[in-house]
Design brief:
- By secondary structure, this protein is of the alpha/beta class.
- The chain has one domain (about 5-175): Rossmann fold, CATH 3.40.50.450.
- It is built from six helices and six strands.
- The protein has a six-stranded parallel beta sheet, with helices on both faces.
- Helix 1 (about 25-40) links the parallel strand 1 and strand 2.
- It comes from Tigheibacillus jepli.
- InterPro entries: YspA (IPR010697).
- This is DUF1273 domain-containing protein.
């Protein structure tokens, strides 16, 4: 696998309302575990649409991993200015990610025109990647369901997930690695 699309829930779907929420560290830890394994197996690119939440947290992680690994980040929003209605703190973080990415280009010129742009985005990511890594829960698919519907139609498309159980395992591992945990 050379190109991996990473996605998952938006912050509100996880009841995360601040960028410094401590649960983000657990999500990034779980993503880190999976991404490092894939990078060591030959992954070259992580691509995202740049949506708030898992995608932005994954992008931050990839930028950190670039210090150790030969990995590149591509950001392909469905249209220009997708962040114009986001909170200011997310807009600033998104702009920083766009500047730090190895490649960034919207799929459609101009702003939002209609839901067809999101459908086209999902198809584009399936066509341009070898597989995906999603933070997902079958019991609560949330916005993931639209991408998954497209991914399930593709042949030879790898779908990796990080489930709530995987996230709980990440929490436990992080807590147990803290020396104060054992006191």
């Amino acid at each position: 696998m050379k190109v991996l699309f990473v996605s998952g829930y938006k912050p509100r779907e996880l009841n995360i309302f601040k960028q410094d929420d401590p649960r983000i560290a657990f999500i990034q830890y779980a993503l880190h575990q999976r991404l490092v394994t894939l990078i060591e197996e030959g992954l070259e690119w992580v691509i995202i649409s740049g949506q708030m939440g898992v995608e932005m947290w994954a992008a931050e992680l990839v930028l950190d991993l670039k210090e150790t690994y030969d990995i590149r980040l591509g950001i392909f929003p469905p249209f220009e200015n997708q962040d114009e209605r986001w909170p200011d703190s997310y807009q600033a973080a998104y702009e920083e990610l766009l500047m730090a990415a190895d490649f960034a280009q919207p799929l459609y010129k101009g702003g939002y025109k209609g839901p067809y742009q999101f459908r086209a985005k999902n198809k584009w990511f399936v066509d341009k990647s070898d597989g995906c890594l999603l933070i997902a829960d079958d019991a609560f698919p949330g916005s993931n369901k639209f991408f998954l519907a497209e991914a399930y139609q593709a042949k030879n498309y790898a779908i990796y997930t990080i489930t709530p159980d995987d996230l709980q395992e990440a929490v436990t591992e992080m807590q147990m690695s803290d020396p104060d945990y054992w006191n």
